[in-house]
Design brief:
Elements: H1 15-20, H2 23-27, H3 31-49, H4 53-57, H5 67-79, H6 83-86, H7 107-110, H8 114-120, H9 128-133, E1 139-143, H10 155-172, E2 177-181, E3 183-184, H11 188-203, H12 207-210, H13 212-236, E4 247-248, H14 252-267, E5 271-281, E6 286-288, E7 293-298, E8 302-304, E9 313-315, E10 317-325, E11 331-336, E12 347-350, E13 364-366, E14 373-378, E15 391-394, H15 400-409, H16 435-448, E16 452-457, E17 460-465, E18 473-482, H17 485-496, E19 501-503, H18 508-516, E20 521-522, E21 524-525, E22 535-539, E23 545-549, H19 553-564, E24 572-575, E25 579-580, H20 582-586, H21 589-592, H22 601-606, E26 611-615, H23 619-634, E27 641-645, E28 647-650, H24 666-670, H25 675-683, H26 689-702, H27 712-721, E29 728-731, H28 733-757, H29 765-774, H30 777-798, H31 802-829, H32 834-855, H33 860-867, H34 897-919, E30 929-934, H35 937-954, E31 958-963, E32 973-979, E33 982-987, H36 994-1019, H37 1024-1027, H38 1030-1062
Parallel strand pairs: 1-2, 3-4, 12-14, 19-27, 26-27, 28-29, 30-31
Antiparallel strand pairs: 5-6, 5-18, 7-17, 8-9, 10-11, 10-13, 10-16, 12-15, 13-14, 18-20, 21-25, 22-23, 22-24, 30-33, 32-33
Helix pairs in contact: 10-27, 17-18, 17-23, 25-26, 27-28, 28-31, 28-32, 29-32, 30-31, 30-32, 30-34, 31-32, 31-35, 32-33, 34-35, 36-38
Protein name: Valine--tRNA ligase, mitochondrial
Coiled coil: 1033-1060
Region (Disordered): 1-92
Length: 1063
């Protein structure tokens, strides 16, 4: 029969429940438990009396033996907050009304109100009058790479914004006049495509159904909706931009600058009109810039879907066919991957030194399908006589190399395609066919004429439109071009001379490669959304006409009248229907935003800018264009330094695209979201059904449980931690969750510190100096750690090594302040020595005040929240906001390497003690005696100064520091070697039942041995590697290694306990 006071069938009782029990109820509990709970109540009451509410709550833990689950349940319950607790009642734009600190970190509450207050107070609005007084070193100016107004920002934008804002805040905290200017790009082709898709999906209309004016109005509606979405996202990220100077590349102000730039470049002879080859998208019916072309490599014959074609099309094949020499039995065999373009052939080129064809140079070939003779020409640039047959078809209107050859030889340029990709009237019997339908039909016709000579696989690279996935066609078009040769030369010279710096410098090679081999820039686009080209076809009554460039129609009319020698009133002007490449207006952004071409104060005070930060993928397409445009139009570099960040990919290394379902909105990480919401977002997107199915699968695979709420600070910190990677970042959102936990650690550490400081604490610098003079090793240690963090963070920021700034601040807060200093000062702040307590609190306050400022550029919201909670801060720091406070600096007077060495040694000893505790399975409540044996004077002296701290950190009843040969270590100790000079002895008498532990361990060892032998037997059967599936073999190997390791660990423990028995 069980004793009535046994613990069987007695439910766990918490401290809180025990305090509410009557004496009769308490009497029914086992006596041991009554005693334990009564003691815990006393501890909780004492802590509550000291005002440490958080510590009192942590007294509500389950009694020993009831497991961690009950303790964790109590902890979670203590940290629960209501929806009302998370609500912020601060009127918009006013300084946040501070509530009592929540028991745990909640980013929604912490990040509320601060952004609106910063903006209302105009903390980030740059003073141009002050800027005009400062030299360049006293200013920091940066424009945001304007995101496209095509929808929401993604994590790539979030990385860009975080890097830029971190750098900006750091400069502001150094007292510089700081301007971080925001803006949005109208993104011509990207935006037009999105709106066209939307019209097709929702109304089954094309832009041609609406007409130009009505369609442009639809795009403006899109801009108004999504431009606001983008600025909202940037605000949520905590960007310290000057919203009073926000710009849009299609605004009236910037449109004036665009027209002026075009006219000035034309007047300088740098813009001209010519019929040349462009990248043409038949689906969109427009020319594309090189950046809007994606490339896919194929290794041989490949069937692919192409827009506007029903059947899959064959690519990756060389088709060989013959041209007959006129009035001869000879033929030339040609090979091509684009058979349909033979309808535009005007010549065949051979090498002038090729003996096989020398006698044919100047002869003509018969085209089998069109009434055209093809001349055989000699060209040593186009032809490699060792490759293929040594004869090359020349199609000047559809191939860049052929075009150059045609210009060298003055060949006819025969275009075979319409804008929509149909064969035109030059194509004889194939006219009206889709281009790839014509490819098939031409092959059949060649075979019918006995001219087909076979087909072979051919690895090749296909250019695809990034918007439609249509195959890019080189097409001959009359367009406007920028002559880039001289301004490109000046741009490369700026980098070579060091006047313009690229960071990291590994991208200098890319810069030189592109600009040293630059081609003229086609700036015409056959779109409706964008800046209309300020060029007019002026026609006179006498029949003469001329393209005229002017700032507006009146300017163009006056120019045309002068050039044509007629009365302006007699002229008819028709503006070019085309718009300018988006990169043209974006290329003006660093100076157009400041009012150029007018000589405004902003232009004088803020241009040239200090830094451009952007992704390395647009180094040529945007950065180089800005440099070239600025040199051409202002004769100045637009910025001194370019910092290029890596591309953000998903955790699998894939590019983030909507069709893969791996594009994440920063707000989904900041506020958290579930899988259903992620899938609903995809449903509302512009994806076609096939893409949507693929995207849904990708989203379910990567985010089966959605994304937990992380907050902007954790997102920023997580992104910056990745920036060590120069080219690609494989972003795992779970890593951001880790930094959310870091925020929670900061919150709890500050909560502990503030509760101990109290509301009446006043920091006095002289008291901090007294603490230094008092020379407590732990105080000096943490001050030295802070000093090192200041030095390392400053150096990291100067060198754009933002990942090192994260590492330095993270290390200080987590591993040095939280894990070491806060633990060792608990007995001090709760102790009876008022001087020691005062010193510790001043050091603690100084660490908070400096550590928060150190971290602020990275985590602006949390640091502002905690900075504003520092008691009586205004009595020594007049900064109204942490964003305007001074960035902490390294000081020789705060360097204490000796104390740092002492504490590092103490931590090594503590680590060894903790390892011994684990090795001998000591309970958390066990308090062993520790004997530290030192072999040298330095270790002995350091140990003497830190022994009490070691005892606190290692939960030991005492730590005695002994010099080798000068003291006695009791028998029955566990031993651990710390280093060559120090070893730790832990007295285990009365703490460990050696016999019982050995019995248990030997049983475990037998079990592990049986498992090991079982796997060894299983894996040694004949033909194991041949007959057992690979995945099963891998699993067996992993399990065998696991159980072997476990068995070795247990055997090591058995050896330890047997040594104790031998005593």
């Amino acid at each position: 029969m069980a004793d009535q006071n046994s613990s069987a069938d007695v439910a766990p009782v918490t401290v809180e429940q025990f305090m509410q029990m009557s004496d009769e109820e308490k009497g029914k509990l086992p006596k041991a438990r009554q005693k334990k709970l009564a003691k815990m109540v006393e501890v909780a009451k004492k802590k509550a009396a000291k005002g440490n509410a958080g510590e009192a709550q942590r007294g509500d833990v389950a009694p020993k033996g009831e497991g961690k689950a009950a303790a964790n349940k109590q902890k979670k319950k203590a940290q629960q907050v209501s929806a009302e607790d998370l609500m912020d009642s601060t009127p918009k734009g006013e300084k946040k009304i501070m509530k009592k600190m929540l028991p745990a970190y909640h980013p929604k509450y912490v990040e509320s109100a601060w952004g609106e207050w910063w903006e209302a107070q105009q903390f980030f609005t740059a003073d141009v009058e002050e800027a005009l007084k400062r030299n360049d070193d006293q200013k920091f100016v940066m424009v945001i790479p304007p995101p496209n107004v095509t929808g929401s920002l993604h994590l790539g934008h979030a990385l860009m914004a975080t890097i830029e804002d971190t750098i900006t805040r750091w400069h502001r905290m150094h007292g510089r006049v700081t301007l971080y200017l925001p803006g949005v790009d109208h993104a011509g082709i990207a935006t037009q495509v999105v709106v066209e898709k939307k019209l097709a999906r929702e109304k089954n209309l094309t832009r041609h159904d609406l007409g130009r004016e009505a369609f442009v109005n639809e795009v403006w509606k899109w801009k108004d909706e999504y431009g606001a979405q983008i600025t909202m996202q940037l605000r949520k990220m905590g960007l310290s931009v000057d919203w009073t100077r926000e710009e849009f590349t299609f605004s009236k102000k910037l449109s004036i600058a665009v027209n002026e730039a075009f006219v000035r470049l034309y007047d300088k002879g740098l813009i001209y009109r010519d019929t040349r080859l462009v990248n043409w998208c038949c689906k969109l019916r427009t020319a594309l810039s090189d950046i809007e072309v994606d490339y896919v490599d194929i290794t041989g014959r490949t069937m692919m879907k192409v827009p506007n074609h029903d059947d899959e099309i064959e690519f990756g094949v060389l088709t060989h066919f013959a041209y007959k020499v006129e009035r001869s039995d000879e033929e030339l065999v040609i090979a091509t991957t684009r058979l349909e373009t033979m309808l535009g052939d005007v010549a065949v080129a051979v090498h002038p030194n090729d003996s096989r064809y020398k006698h044919l140079i100047g002869s003509e070939l018969v085209h089998p399908f069109v009434d055209r003779k093809l001349k055989i020409i000699a060209d040593d640039e186009l032809v490699d006589m060792e490759f293929g047959t040594g004869a090359v078809k020349v199609t000047p209107a559809h191939d860049p190399n052929d075009f150059a050859c045609g210009r060298r030889h003055n060949l006819e340029e025969v275009s075979i395609l319409t804008d929509e990709g149909l064969m035109n009237n030059s194509c004889g019997q194939f006219a009206g066919m889709k281009r790839y339908q014509a490819r098939v039909e031409v092959e059949k016709a060649l075979e019918a004429k006995a001219l087909l000579r076979g087909k072979t696989d051919n690895p090749m690279r296909l250019g695809l439109c990034s918007r439609t996935a249509d195959i890019i066609e080189p097409l001959l078009k009359p367009q406007w071009w920028v002559d880039c040769k001289e301004i490109a030369r000046r741009s490369t010279e700026a980098v070579r001379s060091g006047e313009l710096k690229l960071v990291p410098n590994i991208f200098e090679g890319t810069w030189f490669n592109w600009l040293d081999n630059i081609r003229d820039w086609c700036v015409s686009r056959q779109l409706w959304w964008g800046h209309r080209i300020p060029a007019y076809l002026a026609a006179a009554k006498n029949g003469s006409s001329e393209w005229i460039v002017g700032r507006d129609e009146d300017d163009a009319r006056n120019r045309a009248a002068e050039k044509l020698g007629v009365d302006g009133a007699e002229l008819t002007l028709e503006q070019d229907e085309d718009v300018l490449d988006t990169w043209f207006s974006s290329g003006l952004f660093p100076f157009s935003v400041f009012g150029w071409p007018e000589e405004t104060k902003d232009l004088q005070g803020f241009f040239p800018t200090t830094l451009l930060e952007t992704g390395h993928d647009i180094l040529f397409f945007w950065v180089a264009r800005m440099v070239m445009m600025s040199l051409a139009l202002t004769d100045k570099l637009p910025f001194k330094t370019v910092y290029l960040h890596a591309m953000v990919r998903d955790k699998h290394g894939r590019k983030m695209t909507k069709s893969l379902g791996n594009v994440i909105d920063p707000l989904e990480v900041i506020g958290g979201t579930n899988l259903d919401q992620l899938l609903q977002k995809l449903q509302k997107s512009n994806l076609d059904p096939r893409e949507l199915e693929k995207a849904n699968s990708g989203m379910k695979l990567d985010y089966p449980d959605g994304i937990p709420e992380c907050g902007a600070d954790a997102l920023r910190c997580g992104l910056l931690a990745y920036t060590q990677q120069a080219r690609d970042i494989n972003l795992d959102v779970q890593r951001v969750v880790g930094y959310r936990n870091f925020c929670n650690k900061l919150w709890n550490a500050s909560r502990f510190a503030l509760s101990n400081l109290g509301e009446d604490f006043v920091f006095k610098p002289e008291n901090l100096q007294k603490a230094v003079e008092h020379s407590d090793p732990m105080d000096l240690y943490i001050l030295d750690c802070l000093n090192i963090a200041c030095r390392d963070t400053e150096n990291a920021m100067k060198g754009f090594a933002l990942y090192n700034a994260v590492s330095a601040t993270y290390k200080f807060w987590l591993y040095e302040l939280c894990d070491v200093y806060l633990e060792v000062i608990k007995p001090v702040v709760n102790g009876e020595d008022p001087d020691a307590k005062n010193y510790a609190l001043h050091v603690l306050y100084h660490c908070l005040h400096s550590g928060l400022r150190l971290l602020h550029p990275i985590m602006p919201f949390l640091t502002e929240e905690l900075f504003q909670r520092l008691p009586n801060r205004e009595k020594h720091d007049d900064a109204i906001s942490i964003s305007l406070s001074a960035f902490p600096q390294y000081s020789e007077s705060m360097a204490f390497p000796g104390a740092h060495r002492q504490v590092d040694s103490a931590m090594e000893i503590t680590k060894s003690i903790r390892s011994l505790r684990a090795a001998y399975n000591l309970t958390p409540s066990a308090r062993p005696e520790i004997y530290v044996l030192c072999r040298d004077d330095q270790s002995f002296e350091d140990g003497q100064k830190t022994s009490i701290k070691i005892a606190t950190l290692s939960r030991s009843s005492k730590v005695e520091i002994l010099k080798l040969g000068s003291g006695n270590v009791p028998s029955g100790c566990g031993v651990a070697v710390v280093n060559e000079n120090t070893e730790v002895h832990m007295a285990l008498a009365g703490l460990v039942d050696v016999e019982a532990e050995l019995t248990k361990l030997r049983g475990n060892a037998r079990e592990k041995k049986i498992l090991v032998e079982g796997y060894q037997k299983k894996m040694s059967v004949p033909d194991y590697e041949k007959n057992v599936p690979k995945n099963v073999q891998e699993k067996n190997t992993a399990n065998l290694a696991k159980y072997k390791q476990e068995m070795e660990t247990i055997e090591d423990l058995i050896d330890r306990f047997e040594l104790l028995l031998k005593g």
